[in-house]
Amino acid sequence: MSQSSGTWGDLGTRVGEAVLKGADRYTRPSMLFRRGSPKRERFEKLAESVFPSVFGTALRLTRNHEEAQDLAQEALVRAFDAFDRFDGRNFKAWVLRIETNLYINRYRKKQRTGTESSLDEENAVEPVAAAHEAPDRQIFDEMLGEEVEEALAQVPDVFRMAVILSDLEGLSYDEIAEALEVPVGTVRSRIARGRAILRKELESFAAERGYLGQETVD
Question: How much of the chain is in helix, strand and coil states, percent to nearest 5?
């Protein structure tokens, strides 16, 4: 069950089409697994139903279409290999946990080679709006999905992952905690920080494009 409501609950709907515009030209689950066994057919059916979320999350994490395709495809292949261990409850949350773990492992590998900055940015100082204030409804009504995605991309990875899984994919705090392998309290903190940073970015984008007065973000 998601904890999102109101403006934040609308975030996934607002940006979903923008993220998946190019998704159809990439490998879908039906192209990964040959038909034949009941297991494969059942997995393929489930995978097709969650593919927009799997690819969309991969794209928001990597911010690169080719890397997102690779990440989503590997997550589905690993999910198929482990399908016998799926508990039958929330397939989307299960696959997104696999995908998120893959992303974190890849990110940390790049970090060790010196090609990425640290993923552990809990104490990073970021410009944030007041945590209890939701963005003005006008921002979401006026801004396009692409613009919201651009603002989301500015949120540091450690907070962006939590916001994506909560506000875009509707996972519960417990499911996010399991996916990120952190306590629920840490999940709550990361979501709050991520929302606050995103709110500030949205206000800046809105002011730049004339949706809001500049004094709103000062």
Answer: 70, 0, 30
